[in-house]
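Notebook B, p. 112. Complex prediction, attempt 2.
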Amino acid sequence: MILLGVGLQLWAYQAMAILKIEITKGIEAGVPIAIVPFGWQGEGKPPQDLAKIIGADLNRSGRFESLDKEDFLSRPYDQAGVKFKDWRLIKAEALAVGKVQRVGKDRYQVQFQLFDVFKGKQLAGYRYVIKAKQMRKVAHQISDIIYEKLTGEPGAFDTRIAYVTVEQRGSGQRRFLLQVADADGYEPVTVLDSGEPIMSPAWSPDGKRLAYVSFEKRRSMVYVQTLADGSRKRLADFRGLNSAPAWSPDGKRLALVLSRDGNPEIYILSPRSRQLRRLTHHHAIDTEPAWSPNGRHIVFTSDRSGKPQIYRISVGGGKPQRVTFEGEYNARASYAADGQSITLVSATKGRYRIAVLHLRRNTMHVLTQATLDESPSFAPNGRMILYATEQGGRGVLAAVSADGRVKQVLRFLKGDVREPAWSPYNRKF
Amino acid sequence: MNKGHGRAFLYAILVHVLVLLVLGFSFDWRLTPSSNRQSDDKKVVQATLVDGGKVQKEIERIKKKEAAQKSAAKKEKARLESLIKQAALAEKKAEKRRKAEEKRRIDLKKKKVLEKKRKNQKAKKLAKKRKKELARKKKQALAKKKRKAQAKLAAQRRHRQAEKAMQAQIRKEQLQRQAQSELNKYQPLIRQRVEGFWIRPPGAKTGLKAILRVRLTRGGEVLTVRVVRSSGNAIFDRSVENAVKKATPLPLPDNPELAEFFSVIDFEFDPQ
């Protein structure tokens, strides 16, 4: 009897002893999300396929995997129609549903809801009344909401990119276009159309202006153009080279490269006071400056060691510190918004690829495998990098997730596209 | 019988009285006839009267004698009467006594009968009581017997149960041993499955750790997921919860008894 009691106790104890399993790794994959085609109430076809835009946004980020709508067991467009079981079955973690309703002449009501499938609860719900041409923007905003709700970080879909498109027109004439488009490459707007090269577009921190280099006067000059009205000012037209403008985080100064003193050096210009200060002093080429987000440092490319490498210098001046040691060639550095890492072009054996260097850990992570990738810039949330690459002999833009897992070439209908720059968070202009 | 007896008694008394009377009058008996004869012979005697004075004297004497006789008779009669009366009285008394005796006897008899009856009744009652007692005792004995039997049965049952429990225990221990080996087999399978569904949030800081308590059906279906220890990061927590929920059903042994050992699992997410 006692033995039995002990046995039972032992049994109870062992029954109580809960099995423990330690999980130390996961997979690198996008969070599966189901974005159901939006319902449409109106004549003909809806102005845009919102679900498609959102799905493409989320996929491009690498953080999500928009599930194939062919696998959907139902297609609800509001909460009443949602059966969470249907979505658990296809292992969707999140579900986005919505509908578009024509409510007047060029007026549409867009409604959307985001659900946590496994908890069976709504995470977000929004309603907009917009014009047809705002449809894509609203789609990107919805993507941002989804991104933020599910990752805890802000999305960067409702942002823009600036880039230069080279078009071949009839009779061998080349046109250089400075263009601004949505972050997915859609809705391009030409900001400047020139017969001479345009280079190095740079966004002002408020997203309202672009600084760029234009050769329209047959030599390089730096201009600043306000996007809202197209007005522009010549910022730097010093003797020699005027290139690579970069805005300070407070938007009050620009770093740029001038060769007015004989050799390309980094300068800091305060446009309002017209004050110019030389930052670097070296006989080698110092170029491509970029500000740290806290405004205290500037990274730049210098071949002072023989081959181009990245250096960092205090904005107040001083001795530059070499930052990159891996690879034969490192250039075109720019900071992530958190200041923890920089993206750059790193070349080994003549292959130019996009890489991310973690500054504190001093580890370099090469993200792309092509041979001629260039001009990387972080999305304002630091989760994606926009860069230029070559596809079928022409320049195109591509985006890669900061972990290098997902790459996607943006859709451009024509021309040779290069020199991209990702805007800061969107502010109305 | 009483009556005959009584009458006989009466006759006896009468005979006695007569005897007494004969004896009492025996003297007079001899005299009486002479006197009678004398009275009958008076005329005769009168005719022979001789001396007046002497006759007178004689007459006187006879007269006296007659009066004395008369008074004696009277006396006798009264005595007889009184005797009769006394006899009657005695008779009456005797009767009364007899009656009383009779009554007493009857009463006694009655009493005896009653007594007997009572005794009978008492005996009967006693017998009844005894019988009852006996029945009760019998019943008690029976109940006791029954109880004993039941107790025995219960004991047997308990024994059987104990045996069963013991066997179950042994079985469970066996199962546990089996489960241990199954555990070694299934634990990596479960881990792999969950890892295959865990999308680690790339933005999450390192050092985040969460523990989930997961309840499973014997078929491995995830019933409930509870965050036992939060990482402090809602996105991280959600990612691990979703990992487990998406991993349903988890691979468990086919034997439901063994699967029982996997009914609660703590998953510790500790990314390296």
